Amino acid sequence: MKLCFSLIFFSKIFVAANGPQGILYPQQSESRELFSLDGVWTFAISPKFDQDIGFKNQWYRKELKKVSKYVIPMPVPSSYNDITQNATIRDYVGWVWYERTFFVPARWRGEQRVFLRFGSANYETVVWINGVKVTNHSGGYLPFVAEVTKQLSYGSENKVTVALNNTLTPLTIPQGRIVFPNNTDRYPPGYFIQEYNFDFTNYAGIHRPVYLYTTPRSYIDDVTVTTETSEDNYFGTIRYSILCQGCSKDAMLYTDLLDEDGANVASNFGPKNKISFKRPKLWWPNLMHERPGYLYTLKIHLKDGDVEDFYRLKIGVRSLSWNSSGIFINHQKVYFQGFGKHEDFLIKGRGVDYSLIVKDFNLINWLGANSFRTSHYPYAEEIMDFADKNGIMVIDEIPGVGLDHFGADLLKNHLEAMKELIHRDKNRPSVVMWSIGNEPQSQKPEAAPYYSQVVNFTKLLDPTRPVTLVLSRGYFEDKAAPFLDVICFNRYYSWYSDTGHLELIQQQLLNEARNWHNKFRKPVMMTEYGAGSIAGFHSDPPVVWTEDYQTALMKEYFKGFDILRKEGFFIGEMIWNFADFGTPQGSTRVFGNHKGIFARDRSPKPAAHLLKQRYESIVTALK
Ligand code: GCB
Q1: Residues in contact with 114: Cβ distance below 8 Å, sequence separation at least 6, in sequence order
Q2: Is 421 helix (H, G, I), strand (E, B) or coil?
């Protein structure tokens, strides 16, 4: 096998465009207009062996239907993989092209700025407006924005063109590789495959909403908020700092803190200040209070001469701290009862879908869960908003899944992804921990300096939240754990190891969790355990792949969790997975991964009813 990573696929090297520094979610306000570009775009793939043709022939200056032979409609937001009947598009690796036209109102001409913002697109993206490049971005799961004021035509039609490449290489986050088999008996010339070391479909497309929005010339570009509460929770303090662009030195900033009914609680002014007040309504995790997820609104008002801008940020007031045996919110120890999830659904793949978001949060509440991990990449802001307002604690994970070969270039991309994630999610009360990756080859000596740098960088950007890395190597060989605040580990006793031997689960679980704690003296949590089950498969006594085996296995883990919880350092259980999900084709995957407690269509398996009983009983025991 010959490995060829980037030559064909990333033959264009793009210098990051200068843009705004903030990445605030776009919103309509007294001073801002918002216009969605979601809908049906025009789509074309590049010919397999002429990947650069769109760049060479400047497709962005023309209409796609005039330059490509095969142009089809493509929904945005959505993955493109499962939209057609064409296996070439489903499995496509390389440059694809999107385009749409839209009108810009004449009233936007003049004293305004206009921005174009993508919630995410996987992986490498280049964007043109009316044939002029406005930005590019690397990374599949985080937003990017460009000011397009000068490139737009006002009072007339405009065109946005996007080139998107989903190729993963040893330097992307996550990593992948393009393999050219050199056996000409078995493969035609030029044949290649994309390989990657993770167990979910590398869905591609414009996955999250695309917005055009306006701001005044001087505008609120970024806000950073931290909160704390006094030991008895009687006082709450909000510290904020606000970044303006285009402002004169006389510009004034005013802030009002509004409660959920819109009543003013406190006011202040200046770009950096604090608001302290008595009897705050705290942000509590689900089930720790009768009113979880309470959110205030920080209304920010910029006045710069005649120019005014308004932005409203939802914030939760809570304290967050941790020590060697636990994580504390509002000075109370928390126990995580949740799951790993995926952004995954039929047809849309990873595309944002409000019906699915609301359904999933209904199921989360039905289960009595209080948390999830954004395995194995940052989730859409539309999902994170629901976590904030439902009091669901989130372990916010970067797409550093299954990393191997830890070099300086990979580190650079990893740190950039961390920076963008923290920038996006720093103000969210639901985010209670950063996860800098999942199941790396952390037994390798190079993993030690690598992860120590990722942790230090993360703490520099955000000292207010604990940092974890989800581990799968043994406690005796792992090199990353010393740098972490919390040890999260994944293990599949009686599934991948000792398959069928349910009687071993308790012993293995207890020993391993205790060993992690004894060696590193940190809180320990199990972030994955589980078994695959095909809805409708049954047997008694249970055998693997039946729904009965899945529940029997869960019961054994529960016994172990109950013993561990009493020992003080064990802080949570997250089953793998919330729902069945799509994976690459493989002989160990039967039409996807079936460890969901819900099927992919969200119908409950018996495992869901059992988990609901368990999570409800944990809460009752606390009362
Ligand atoms: C893991 C991975 C997860 C997989 C899971 C499995 O350890 O973290 O991404 O889907 O195992 O089902 O094999």
Answers
A1: 104, 108, 147, 148, 149, 152, 212, 213, 214
A2: helix
Nearest CA to ligand 1 atom 5: 199
> pTM for this structure?
0.96
What does DSSP say about strands 95-104 and 112-118: parallel, antiparallel, or unpaired?
unpaired
Rounded to the nearest angstrom, the distance between the alpha carbon of 375 and the centre of ligand 1 is: 10
Q: Express each pLDDT in 346-384 by its tens digit.
A: 999 999 999 999 999 999 999 999 999 999 999 999 999
Per-residue pLDDT reduced to its tens digit, 464-477:
999 999 999 999 99
The residue to mutate among 375, 397, 593, 600, having the most atoms of ligand 1 within 8 angstroms of its beta carbon, is 593
Residue 359, exposed/middle/buried by CB under 10 A (0-12, 13-18, 19+)? Answer: middle
Q: Indicate if 33 belongs to the active site.
A: no
Among 28, 609, 571, 53, which residue's Cα sits nearest to residue 329? Answer: 571
Band the pLDDT of 20: cuts 50, 70, 90.
low
Contacts 24+ apart (CB under 8 A), 594-602: 594/532, 594/533, 594/534, 594/545, 595/530, 595/531, 595/532, 595/533, 595/550, 597/339, 597/550, 598/363, 599/535, 600/344, 600/345, 600/346, 601/346, 602/359, 602/360, 602/363
- Contact assessment for residue 82 and residue 346, using Cβ atoms and an 8 Å cutoff: yes
Given a cut of 70, whether residue 16 has pLDDT beyond it is no
C-alpha gyration radius of the chain:
25
Q: Say which residues have a Cβ less than 8 Å from residue 48's Cβ, sequence separation at least 6.
A: 94, 190
Residue to mutate (ligand 1; options 343, 472, 576; most atoms within 8 A of CB): 576
Ligand 1 midpoint to CA 340 (Å): 10
Pocket lining for ligand 1, CB < 6 angstroms? 198-199, 376, 438-439, 472, 490, 528, 576, 593, 595
Considering 397, 439, 528, 556, which one is annotated as catalytic?
Answer: 439
Ligand 1 atom closest to the CA of 376, numbered from 1: 9
The 10s digit of each residue's pLDDT in 389-406 is 999 999 999 999 999 999
Closest CA to 532 of 471, 581, 474: 581
Contact 43, 72 (CB under 8 A): yes
- 3-class SS of residue 64: helix
Closest CA to 294 of 265, 333, 328, 326: 265
d(CA 103, CA 155): 7
Looking at ligand 1, which residue's alpha carbon is closest to its atom 4?
A: 199
Tokens 């800098």 sit on residue: 436
Number of helical (H) and strand (E) elements in the chain, helices listed first: 10, 33
CA nearest ligand 1 atom 10, residue: 199
Q: Scan for tokens 């998107």, then name that residue.
A: 164
Query: How far is ligand 1, taken at its centre, from the CA of residue 199, in Å?
Result: 6
Ligand 1 atom closest to Cα of residue 439 = 8
User: By alpha-carbon position, which residue is closest to atom 7 of ligand 1?
Assistant: 490
- Where do we find the tokens 């605040």? 485
Contact residues for 156 (Cβ-Cβ < 8 A; gap 6+): 103, 104
Please answer whether residues 259 and 38 qualify as being in contact, where contact means their C-beta atoms are separated by less than 8 angstroms: no
